[in-house]
Amino acid sequence: MQKSSRLAILALLELASNPDRQISTAEIGEKYRVSAHHLAKVLLVLGRAGWVQSVRGVGGGYKFSGNARRITLYDVISLFEETEVKCRLSDPSQANPEEWALFDVSKEINDISVATYSSITLSTMLMQIEKRKKAQKISGSDAASDAGAKVSAQ
Amino acid sequence: MPHDKDPDGATALTICPATSQDLDQVVALDARVTGTAKPEYWRDIFERYGARRPDERFFLVAKPAGGNDAGPDTIFGFIVGEVRGWEFGSEPCGWVFAVTVDPDRREQHIGERLFRDICARFRQVGIGKVRNMVRRDDTLVMSFFRSEGMVAGPYIQLELDLNDLD
């Protein structure tokens, strides 16, 4: 996945997780450790797709304006990358069997990637994120309990 | 009369084991969704999964719980699965190999409730994992299972066209 696609997905997840809130480019950039300049370019593309809206006025920023249950990771990636595996030769009939065999493997991997990205919506990602947050809270509590238990035992 | 709704707005449902009286509707619903009528296949599935080893094999149908315009025995959807063990080196786990919802009744959480019901039955018999297989190009079905929390498992399905065998 290219950097722009990754950033676009992260920005959309940030905005879709708080659809009523407007979030600034600086805030998103700081959280994901990326330049506001690069992020602005990405958000422009997402705005053209109708998935984010820039908000003028005090604070400014962006709001999510898409349907998280319908936008898939593949939809986002397709805005920034060529997603098909193509023969590098201008005339495919010139490819030899070794090149075709490698092309077949590349196509198989690409087809699996496309199928995976096409089946994961922003909504599904947000659900996965919540699971991770809960798991982190629990392991954080366990660690704190363990630390507490060790202190008590000393 | 509108379908009864649960407090969260979903259609009130009963999920129960399929009976032989349900078979015609199952065949019709499957034919409508897949484009191919398979009465013998579903009769065989019912005999294997509906009538034998009921603690490990589940053929469940979803019907409206309250009054509705379609009649109390109308099937809104069905799901079939079983516990399988030791194939492909896997410890016993639940396998879901068919789930269908009436296209006119989608977006009412019927598929979700069928899936959660069968998962609850797997858990009751001590199973901790559920698996299935989805066509790569069936984005709708794959999205559904992913929205239920399923992720890619440790297996890759391989195949060979026997015409290519020397």
Features:
heterodimer, A: 154 residues, mainly alpha, Arc Repressor Mutant, subunit A, two-stranded antiparallel sheet, 2 strands, extended, B: 166 residues, alpha+beta, Aminopeptidase, five-stranded mixed sheet, 4 helices, 29% helix, globular
Could you walk me through the main structural features you see in this protein, from its secondary elements to its overall organization?
The complex is a heterodimer of chains A (154) and B (166). With 154 residues, chain A is mainly alpha-helical. Chain A has a single domain, classed as Winged helix-like DNA-binding domain superfamily/Winged helix DNA-binding domain (Arc Repressor Mutant, subunit A). Chain A has helices spanning 3-16, 25-32, 36-48, 73-80, 97-118, 122-153; strands spanning 52-54, 62-64. Chain A has a two-stranded antiparallel ribbon with strand order 1-2. The N and C termini of chain A lie far apart (49 Å). Chain B is an alpha+beta fold and 166 residues long. Chain B has a single domain (13-164), classed as 3-Layer(aba) Sandwich (Aminopeptidase). Chain B has 4 helices and 5 strands. Chain B has helices at 23-34, 39-50, 110-124, 139-147, and strands at residues 13-17, 57-64, 77-84, 93-101, 130-131. Chain B has a 5-stranded mixed β-sheet. In chain B, α1 (23-34) packs across α2. Chain B is globular, with a radius of gyration of 17 Å.
